[in-house]
Design brief:
- Helix 3 crosses helix 6.
- With 358 residues, the protein is α/β, with parallel strands linked by helices.
- It contains 8 helices and 31 strands.
- The strands form 7 sheets. Strands 5-4-1-6-11-8-12 form a 7-stranded mixed beta sheet, sandwiched between helices. Strands 14-17-20-23-26-29-31 form a 7-stranded parallel beta sheet, with no helix packed on it.
- It starts with a strand and ends with a strand.
- The chain has 2 domains: 222 residues, Spore Coat Polysaccharide Biosynthesis Protein SpsA, Chain A (Alpha-Beta Complex), CATH 3.90.550; 118 residues, UDP N-Acetylglucosamine Acyltransferase, domain 1.
Length: 358
Amino acid sequence: MKGLILSGGKGTRLYPLTFTSAKQLIPLSNKPVLFRVIEAIRDAGIEDIGIVIGDTGAEIKKAVGSGGRWGVKITYISQDAPLGLAHAVKISKDFLGDDRFVMFLGDNVIQGGISGLIAEFAGSAFNSQIVLTRVKEPQHYGVAELGPDGRIVRLVEKPKDPPGNLALVGIYMFDSNIFEAVDSIAPSWRGELEITDAIQWLVEKNYDVHPYVHRGWWIDTGKPHDMLEANSYVLEEMTPHIDGYVDRTSEVDARVTIEKGVEVFNSVIRGPAIIGRDTRIVNAYIGPFTSINHDCLVENAEISRSIVLENSQIRNVGRRIEDSLIGRNVVIHRSPIRPKSFKFTLGDNSVVGLLGSD
């Protein structure tokens, strides 16, 4: 089997962070989401992976390279415009050939990986296997309707009146019949070739499309709230370790990861949390579900349930920062007028002066 990762979206729902960075490279627990997808595919035994790229392709290529660090081979496939998931399959035909493959959206995170799914599909006669999960707002997703026998009846993309709450997770498995399907469908009202329409074509032509209902957590990290939620899940699954320096006046609980070069002075860190390499934490409180990336400074400040990207500084902040996404090379410091509360989604290279004197 081969792997196909879709990594061409603009990430508009994560502006301003994604004005300057590909959404797939925003980290969860200090590791880019795209890297986690590559690892999930590799751990399922697949070493030949294609990545569909768009406007942020140069940044994706620089970050991922040839795939050697993961022991895989990466092939890049350029998509001139975001014309739909089925279009991404269509332009990947030369790479995929006649091989069966798994297609994984590069900004999705799923509990437990996909090794079991790949093994099930590889050992079956299924023409396709799609992963479904129950969601609260199915109108925002592709939705599958199952019959009494558990087989797929129909699929609908972002329906106003959903036929159920089983949404398509961004993980699909296909054999080469999918190419006939994508060649047979027309663009939707959005001007895109929808993967739901291609799968519906397979169903109507009596190909064996197997639904798999995922019981664990799954998150499409398309919005700030989703990123923070996914970060919390990933932090809970980490095996903590301390490789940096923690002084005697600091309190660091057992669910915290401290990477090499970190210095912690007179601070409290409550896990699950991770502090990236060469970061300094001074007279600070780091609350649960927080990821601080490498080469950062948090001094005389409190922060919890947040993601802070590399080379950023939070200094002398009089109120706790919560539920925030803070980009690269950001500086947050205190200004002289009293604050009330803070909540941030800050892009790279931001400088924020906080109002307050205590």
